[in-house]
């Protein structure tokens, strides 16, 4: 295992057996994520980004290779509640309040009520939703709902946050705002974040490490260590350094594209 790695993937392959034959979702994926990294996975549809996140979260089993999370298997890491997972859609239960949604995993795990109440308050503050505990999801905007789902993923105070295109369905202005807030949250909590996106500017703005993937079979074609400072105002996107990284990501995507 690489020294200091919080996630270590070695020669990971995953083939789905389907009625139309095998689908090679991942082939020979090697990746090391350090504690406190913000890693984005970018690549065309079907290149295995979600599959890789699901392998880390113990929701899929690789066909070959090994993955270690905090030095143990994904299954052991899941049982130790090493990660929170944020999905593409906010996925909040409409019949529960925002507080009730965030509390649900804590209720299931049998946390004491005062602990539940304290955690709900803390995570709502972290995502700037203090005071919205008693609202229902439909009373919140799409961006606020997505923040509530991030709060739910933070409820266990897991070290690792796995985020699968959480802002994909939101308009650009809301997305910019959430990107800024996510960076602030990351700085405050020192979490390790793995983030799937289709957006080059989003990947470059957020990440310390950008993983470029290509499809058929899904594999990593480039890993870019970002030289940008960790503190990033939105207008950093107009700087030559930013544009240079964006250019390299674009080249990586182009090189890996099959055009079929
Ligand atoms: N459970 C499954 N059974 C069969 N094939 C699957 C399964 N899950 C994913 N696949 C296939 O594996 C490949 C990778 O899928 P995956 O969802 O990981 O891609 P992705 O890069 O996240 O795509 P997108 O950007 O569209 O979300 C695709 O060809 C997909 O059809």
TrEMBL record:
GO MF annotations in UniProt: ATP binding; ATP hydrolysis activity
InterPro entries: AAA+_ATPase, ABC_transporter-like_ATP-bd, ABC_transporter-like_CS, ABC_transporter_ATP-bind, P-loop_NTPase
Sorted UniProt keywords: ATP-binding, Nucleotide-binding, Transport
Superkingdom classification of source: Bacteria
Location of the ABC transporter domain: 7-236
PROSITE patterns: ABC_TRANSPORTER_1 (PS00211), ABC_TRANSPORTER_2 (PS50893)
Pfam family, one: ABC_tran
PANTHER family: ALIPHATIC SULFONATES IMPORT ATP-BINDING PROTEIN SSUB, TAURINE IMPORT ATP-BINDING PROTEIN-RELATED
Family: Belongs to the ABC transporter superfamily.
Protein name (record): NitT/TauT family transport system ATP-binding protein
Source species of the chain: Salipiger abyssi
């Amino acid at each position: 295992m690489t020294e200091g790695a919080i996630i270590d993937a070695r020669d990971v392959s995953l083939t789905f057996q389907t009625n139309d034959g095998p689908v090679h979702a991942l082939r020979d994926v090697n990746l090391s994520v350090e504690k406190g990294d913000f890693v984005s996975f970018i690549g065309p549809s079907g290149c295995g980004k979600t599959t890789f996140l699901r392998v880390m979260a113990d929701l899929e089993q690789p066909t070959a290779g090994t993955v270690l999370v905090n030095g143990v298997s994904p299954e052991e890491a899941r049982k130790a509640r090493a990660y929170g997972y944020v999905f593409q859609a906010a996925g909040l239960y409409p019949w529960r309040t925002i507080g009730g949604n965030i509390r649900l995993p804590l209720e299931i795990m049998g946390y004491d009520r005062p602990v539940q109440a304290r955690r709900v308050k803390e995570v709502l503050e972290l995502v700037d939703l203090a005071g919205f505990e008693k609202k229902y999801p439909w009373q919140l905007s799409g961006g606020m709902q997505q923040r509530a789902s991030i709060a739910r993923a933070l409820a266990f105070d897991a070290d690792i946050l796995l985020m699968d295109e959480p802002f994909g369905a939101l308009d650009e202005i809301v997305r910019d705002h959430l990107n800024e807030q996510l960076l602030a949250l990351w700085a405050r909590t020192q979490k390790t974040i793995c983030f799937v996106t289709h957006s080059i500017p989003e990947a470059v703005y957020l990440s310390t490490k950008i993983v470029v993937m290509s499809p058929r079979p899904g594999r990593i074609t480039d890993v870019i260590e970002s030289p940008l400072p960790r503190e990033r105002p939105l207008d950093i996107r107009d700087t030559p350094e930013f544009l240079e990284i964006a250019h390299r990501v674009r080249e990586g995507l182009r090189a890996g594209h099959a055009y079929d």
